[in-house]
């Protein structure tokens, strides 16, 4: 009657049973009678892969090149004792998760228990009851198989994420594309791009439009990890579909992308974006702010200003009515874009990082050292210093400097 | 995030939030929205003066709240936006979506 109430152990299903029965078990005991008794017990319970050793040294040599699933060691052996063997086995990296049973007739409980300090997983009292031995072995073997499955799963997920990260990186300009733009428009572009997980919702881009104009943007989709990354792909796909004239019109482009994203994204997801077009002939930056923090402009004359304007994040509402603003952007000026990690950064006292102060600190760099690369490193160092290296969001910093 | 719901009248619900409002409050906040939809309220007053921090996921929750309120004809006002919360709401331009009181 009780049977229905009891959840049977997992190892009673056929596949697990088979895996447990095929597990590689080694037993180490100088007493051959004792060894054959153990072997007999295992055979009786359908274990098919049991090896026996009569000395600690033999077992250790074997384990250097083989990885058993379970090791049973008699503690009192001549030469290398079970205590020594246990300690030596745990030094092998390949064995750090393999269960080791100490098998002993020692009566002194302190001595028996001391073997746990040497890395044993369990202690069996000699002579052991057959059922107890088998039950404990199954329990430890099952745990080992579950752990192994988990590790394999984790490795696979990591591989997938690494691949996804490489794909996401391909969306953004590579070193070659950046170098070409730097030459074409006499600019320097430097980026720090680091998802807090392997992949995330941050993105940036820079693409030529025509002889005088290129666009540059940074953004951040809400959420972290896979969901956010998928939405980044959506953004790039929507943008790619449009022609270059639309690329050159920030608010027009974002209004269209907004409409599409609003339709496909769940209500609570959105993106913050700064999207700018630099025109080197007009010496102008045309831009739209969609919920993103205001970039900084470091002027050639040494003035720092925050880019003005604001707008709702992308996909927050159906018709955000984005506007394009313009600001002068001359040779020698530097545009500094960044994502939310910077404004959400907190120091030990609980104060938030102030962008204005960060901007002022740029002037600490000697004038001749205000390259895009140095400015980007400076901001990164400022953030690390301010938060004592503790910020937990995706971080993207993009700096674009017009050469004199 | 901690919160307190008070029924000011059969038409008006008062929600006072405190602490950190982040992605971990997703389930809680969705329940609040559900309760609001199931009620007969016409107005929701959201007192956020005792909130200490909000993240972008929390802004997303506010969008969800707005969406539900719009669909059910409930008006919302936010009061007491301060410090980091105020900054986040300003940067995101949420005053275009909500009536926000700063004090």
Can you walk through the features of this model?
The complex is a heterodimer of chains A (404) and B (103). With 404 residues, chain A is α/β, with parallel strands linked by helices. Chain A is 40% helix and 21% strand. In chain A, the strands form 3 sheets. In chain A, strands 2-1-3-4-5 form a 5-stranded parallel sheet, with helices on both faces. In chain A, strands 6-15-14-11-12 form a 5-stranded antiparallel sheet. In chain A, β3, α4 and β4 form a beta-alpha-beta unit. With 103 residues, chain B is α/β, with parallel strands linked by helices. Chain B has a 5-stranded mixed sheet. In chain B, β2, α1 (26-38) and β3 (43-54) form a beta-alpha-beta unit. In chain B, α1 packs parallel to α2. The longest helix of chain B is centred in the middle third of the chain and has 17 residues, at 56-72. The A-B interface holds A 220, 222-223, 267-270, 272, 291-294, 310-313, 316-317, 320, 340, 343-344, 352 and B 23, 55-57, 59-61, 63-64, 67, 83-84, 87, 90-94, 96-97.
Count of DSSP-assigned helices of chain B: 3
CA radius of gyration of chain B is 12 Å
Distance between the termini of chain A: 88 Å
Quaternary organisation: heterodimer
Give the number of helices of chain A. Answer: 12
Strand content of chain B: 25-35%
One letter per element, helices H and strands E, the order of chain B comes to: EEHEHEHE
């Amino acid at each position: 009657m009780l049977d229905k109430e009891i959840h049977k152990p997992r190892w009673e299903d056929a596949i697990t049973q088979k895996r447990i029965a095929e597990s590689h078990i080694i037993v180490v005991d100088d007493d051959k009678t004792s060894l054959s008794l153990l072997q007999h017990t295992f055979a009786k319970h359908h274990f098919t892969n049991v090896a026996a050793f009569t000395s600690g040294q033999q077992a250790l040599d074997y384990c250097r090149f083989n990885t058993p699933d379970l090791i049973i060691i008699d503690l009192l052996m001549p030469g290398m004792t079970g205590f020594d063997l246990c300690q030596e086995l745990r030094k092998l990296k390949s064995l750090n998760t393999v269960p080791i049973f100490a098998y002993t007739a020692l009566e002194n409980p302190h001595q028996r228990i001391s073997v746990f300090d040497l890395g044993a997983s369990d202690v069996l009292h000699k002579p052991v009851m057959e059922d107890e031995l088998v039950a404990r072995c199954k329990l430890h073997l099952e745990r080992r198989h579950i752990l192994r499955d988990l590790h394999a799963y984790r490795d696979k997920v990591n591989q997938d994420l690494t691949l996804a990260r490489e794909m996401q990186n391909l969306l953004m300009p590579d070193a070659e594309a950046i170098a070409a733009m730097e030459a074409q428009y006499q600019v320097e572009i430097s980026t720090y791009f680091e998802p807090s997980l392997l992949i995330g919702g941050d993105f940036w881009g820079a693409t030529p439009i025509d002889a005088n104009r290129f666009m540059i943007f940074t953004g951040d989709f809400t959420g972290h990890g896979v969901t956010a990354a998928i939405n980044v792909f959506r953004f790039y796909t929507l943008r790619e579909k449009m022609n270059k004239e639309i690329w050159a019109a920030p608010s027009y482009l974002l209004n269209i992308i907004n409409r599409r994203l609003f339709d496909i994204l769940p209500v609570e997801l959105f993106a913050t974006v700064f999207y700018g077009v630099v025109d080197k002939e007009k010496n102008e930056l045309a831009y739209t702010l969609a919920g993103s923090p205001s970039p900084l402009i470091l002027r050639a004359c040494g003035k720092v200003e925050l880019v003005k304007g604001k707008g709702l994040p992308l996909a927050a509402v159906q018709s955000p009515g984005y506007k394009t603003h313009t600001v002068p952007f001359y040779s020698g000026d530097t545009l500094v874009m960044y994502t939310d990690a910077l404004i959400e950064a907190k120091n030990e006292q609980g104060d938030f990082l102030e962008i204005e102060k960060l901007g002022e600190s740029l002037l600490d760099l000697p004038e001749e050292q205000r390259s895009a690369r140095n400015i980007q490193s400076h901001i990164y160092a400022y953030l690390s210093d301010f938060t004592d290296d503790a910020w937990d969001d995706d971080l993207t910093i993009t700096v674009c400097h017009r050469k004199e | 995030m901690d919160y307190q719901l008070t029924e000011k009248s059969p038409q008006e619900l008062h929600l006072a939030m405190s602490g950190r409002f982040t992605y971990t409050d997703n389930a809680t906040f969705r329940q609040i929205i559900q309760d609001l939809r199931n009620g007969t309220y016409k107005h929701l007053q959201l007192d956020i003066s005792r909130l200490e921090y909000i993240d972008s996921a929390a802004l997303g929750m506010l969008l969800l709240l707005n969406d539900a309120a719009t669909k059910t004809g409930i008006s919302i006002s936010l009061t007491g936006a301060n410090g980091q919360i105020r900054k986040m709401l300003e940067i995101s331009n949420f005053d275009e979506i909500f009536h926000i009181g700063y004090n």
